[in-house]
UniProtKB/TrEMBL annotation:
Residues 436-451 have a biased composition (Pro residues). Keywords: Cell membrane, Cytoplasm, Cytoskeleton, Membrane. Residues 424-451 are annotated as: Disordered. It is a peripheral membrane protein. This is Amyloid beta A4 precursor protein-binding family B member 1-interacting protein. InterPro entries: GRB/APBB1IP, PH-like_dom_sf, PH_APBB1IP, PH_domain, RA_dom, Ubiquitin-like_domsf. Residues 292-401 form the PH domain. It holds the Pfam family RA_2. GO terms for cellular component: cytoskeleton; cytosol; plasma membrane.
C-alpha cells in the first residue's frame, strides 16, 4: 500500500506468474503495473521534497503587530481616526508593502481603480433633490472610508513595524485618537497633540497612564517609546492615557535647591535667585557625571501581603535605594539594597490610606511596567508629608534617568518657545466670523498626583 495524491491509499495486487507462462499479454500487464507503481512513488517522493522545503511558520511573525488602546477592537479605532490621519496611514503602509511584495501593489491599484470607478459613477448622478444628493454624498463618503479602512487592515497585517492606535483623554471629557508606531517617543506624540489641541506647548504637558485596579498613575518620560509600556497592558485592561499638565515634571531644574540643599531651612531655599539656581543645575547636571541628591530619611514600608507599614531609614544612591537594618548603623557597610532602578518605574498612588491603611496619603510605589496587578514584587513606600514625597519621587527620577532627564528638559524648553511663538502669532490673526476659533481646556490631572 502506498499513499497517492490527496492522501488516499493505493492497493496494488501482485500476481505470481509461472515461469512456463510466456504469454506476452501477461508480461505487458506486469510492465504496465510496475511503471504505474514507479510513477506513484516518484509523485510521492516529490510531495515529500516540497513539504520539506516549505519554511516553518515563525509564531512571532503571526502575532498581531498592530493593536489599539481605549477601543473594543482595531476596526473601531480606525473609524475614530481623522481622514487625514487615515490617508497618511494607508499611504505609509502602502509604501512599506510596495517595497516588500508586488501583490500589495496590485491590490492597492485595484482598490484605487475601484475608488476612481465609484467617483466616476457618482459624478453624473447628482439628483435634483438637495436632500437626496446630501444622503447620496454621505453614503459615498462612508463607503470611501470603509474601503480605506479595509485596505489599512490588510496593510497592517503586512507591516513589520508595530503600530498602536491610542485614544488620549482630555480634561473636558473629549478625546483624541492618534496613530503611534514603535519608533516614536513620547515627545513626538506630544508634538502631535499640540497640533490637534492648539495648546501652548508648555513644558509641563505630559502623557500619563492610569491603572484603576492598583489605583496608581505615572507620567511617561519624554524619551520613552510609547508603544513599549502600552504593550504591557492586558487585553481587557481598564488603563487609560491622559494628556495632562504636570507642574512637577521638571521641578528639579526649576528649583534645584529643593533637592541639592534640602537639609537647609525652607526660608533660606526660598531666597535663592535665578542665577544661583542655574549654577546649581550646571554643577550637578552639566558636568561629565551626574550628581544624585544625597537624600536620606525615614519612610514607611508596607510588608508583603499585609496592611502593615513599618518605619525604615532609607538612603538614596545612584544605583538604587538602600535601608538600614534593625540594630545597624548608617555607615555604608551596613546598608542593605532595597531595590535597584534598572527594571522598575515609579508611580504615584491614590487613596492608599483607605486601600492599604497607609499612615498618610503621600505614598508611591516601585514596580516593573509589566506588572499590572497586585504582586509581592511591588515595593510600597509612604512619606510623612507632600514635600518629602516630592523630594523622593523626583530624586529617584534623577538617579534613574540621569543626564537623559536634563536633555529632555532642554528639548522641551526649546520646543515650548517655538510653540509659544506660533501660538502668539495665531492669536493675532483675525478669525473667520463663520467659524469659531479653536479652543482648548487644560485638563486636570486624573487623580491626586504628587509627581
Amino acid at each position: 500500500m502506498c499513499l497517492g495524491s490527496g492522501g488516499r491509499p493505493h492497493i496494488y495486487k501482485w500476481y505470481l506468474i509461472p515461469s512456463s507462462d510466456k504469454r506476452p499479454d501477461k508480461m505487458d500487464d506486469i510492465d504496465a503495473m510496475f511503471s504505474h507503481l514507479l510513477g506513484e512513488m516518484d509523485y510521492l517522493s516529490q510531495s515529500l521534497v516540497h513539504a520539506a522545503d516549505a519554511p516553518d511558520v515563525d509564531p512571532a511573525q503571526q502575532r498581531q503587530s498592530t493593536f489599539s488602546v481605549g477601543f473594543a477592537d482595531l476596526n473601531e479605532s480606525l473609524h475614530e481616526l481623522e481622514d487625514q490621519d487615515l490617508d497618511a496611514l494607508v499611504a505609509d503602509l502602502g509604501s512599506k508593502s510596495n517595497n516588500n511584495a508586488c501583490g500589495g501593489t496590485d491590490h492597492q491599484m485595484a482598490t484605487s481603480a475601484k475608488t476612481q470607478e465609484c467617483e466616476a459613477a457618482a459624478a453624473p448622478l447628482k439628483p435634483a433633490n438637495t436632500a437626496e444628493f446630501s444622503a447620496a454624498l454621505q453614503m459615498y463618503e462612508q463607503q470611501t472610508k470603509a474601503d480605506k479602512i479595509k485596505l489599512a487592515l490588510e496593510k497592517l497585517k503586512e507591516a513589520k513595524v508595530r503600530k498602536l492606535i491610542v485614544k488620549v483623554l482630555m480634561g473636558d471629557g473629549s478625546s483624541r485618537t492618534i496613530m503611534v508606531d514603535e519608533r516614536q517617543t513620547v515627545r513626538e506624540v506630544l508634538e502631535k497633540l499640540f497640533e490637534k489641541t492648539h495648546c501652548d506647548g508648555n513644558i509641563d504637558w505630559s502623557l500619563c497612564e492610569t491603572n484603576p485596579e492598583l489605583q496608581i498613575e505615572r507620567g511617561f518620560e519624554d524619551h520613552e517609546y510609547l508603544v513599549e509600556p502600552l504593550s504591557a497592558w492586558t487585553r481587557h485592561s481598564e488603563n487609560k492615557i491622559y494628556f495632562v499638565s504636570r507642574p512637577q515634571k521638571y521641578v528639579m531644574f526649576r528649583d534645584p535647591q529643593l533637592f541639592y540643599m534640602w537639609k537647609k531651612k525652607k526660608a533660606c531655599l526660598s531666597g535663592i535667585n535665578e542665577q544661583a539656581k542655574q549654577l546649581l543645575v550646571k554643577e550637578h547636571f552639566g558636568g561629565s557625571a551626574l550628581i544624585v541628591p544625597d537624600l536620606e530619611g525615614t519612610l514607611y514600608l508596607k510588608e508583603d501581603g499585609k496592611k502593615v507599614w513599618k518605619p525604615r531609614y532609607f538612603v538614596l544612591r545612584a544605583s538604587g535605594i538602600y535601608y538600614v537594618p534593625k540594630g545597624k548603623t548608617k555607615c555604608s557597610s551596613d546598608l542593605v539594597c532595597f531595590t535597584r532602578f534598572e527594571k522598575v518605574s515609579i508611580y504615584s498612588t491614590n487613596s492608599y490610606r483607605q486601600k492599604y491603611r497607609a499612615p498618610t496619603d503621600f505614598c508611591f510605589l516601585l514596580k516593573h511596567p509589566c506588572i499590572q496587578k497586585e504582586s509581592h514584587y511591588i515595593k510600597f513606600l509612604c512619606c510623612d508629608d507632600e514635600h518629602t514625597l516630592l523630594l523622593w519621587v523626583n530624586s529617584i527620577r534623577i538617579a534613574k534617568y540621569g543626564t537623559v532627564l536634563y536633555q529632555n528638559y532642554q528639548a522641551a524648553v526649546k520646543r515650548a518657545s517655538t510653540w509659544q511663538t506660533v501660538h502668539k502669532a495665531n492669536s493675532h490673526v483675525e478669525d473667520d466670523p463663520h467659524e469659531p476659533p479653536p479652543s482648548f481646556i487644560p485638563p486636570p490631572p486624573p487623580g491626586q498626583s504628587h509627581i
